[in-house]
Amino acid sequence: MLTRRGRAVAGVAGLALLLAGIFGARALNAVVAPAAVALVAGYLQVRFVPAVAVDRTPPENAHAGETRTAELSFRTRDGDSISRPFLGDVTERVGEGLWPVTSENATVRERPDGDAEITFETAVGAEPIEYEVEYRQRGQHTLGPLTVTATDAFGLHARETELRGTETTIVFPRVRRLGVVGRRSLGRLQEYSRSDQRGEFEELREYVPGDPLRDIHWKTTAKRDELIVTEFAADTDVASVTVAAGANAEGADAMAEATASVVLPLVADGVPVELSLPRGELRVGPEYGGQGAMLRTLAVVDSGPVPNPDADVVIKGRADDATVEVRGRRHQFSEMVEARTTGDTTPAPEVEA
């Protein structure tokens, strides 16, 4: 189809041709001939642009507040490389919750539906296109579809092709760095989860100050001139901590952020967690993993009632904050974490995407 510039050139050429026919002004043919050549050449150039396909490499899953890179590469529909790259505009649709970053060769606009579009002026098929994506809101978000608008060298003709394929990226909730109140609260919980118990008999040895009197082996002591105690093998059990989370209609984001910020430090310190959410349960711990599954679940979890009000930790999300109750002691989540700063997302343990 003709672009705005192409329609203008065609209009001028048509008017010149009409005037030449009426008034016989041959000088006007000097306008008509170049315009006609440009229009025909441009049409042929766009007409034989190959049918293309896109290979989209979505940015990796990451936390809200972070930025990752997406890549677009083009090939023919037969799978071959494009032997003759062509000029064109590439417009990528980016779902709400993500935001493409403007660069020197790219412009960004917001669509009425809340999605964004980033447009590149490029030689399609020459080099892959890379662009940065800001992760603004937790959830599962879509990149695509994409539109390629091929143009001729003069910008007179355009041929638009929509490539409908899409990819998804998961945005995990933020993980906030715990402050003094948060560390102290979880510290008590970690101590509670560990209980030292007397294990199996290991050996007899000499008494040393500090040994409990109950460990004295009196029968052996009676045969010697010194106290002998029984040594037991260490047997330290780490009990699971139960965490239950829920939220009102507008509190799912706060619930997800608070839950991730509480559970991950516990697991990092070796404490297994049994997590209950409005629509499911998870086990997360140093022995059986689960951090990745938890983050993916928290990325899309909806609001709902707290499933286990008697859990060791009860988290309730509200529109502006969450409450965290640790074995009967209630705190505002905002009081448990350090003050938010730009880019304040604690690096989470590496988990499977």
From TrEMBL:
InterPro entries: DUF58. Residues 203-266 form the DUF58 domain. This is DUF58 domain-containing protein. It comes from Halolamina salina.
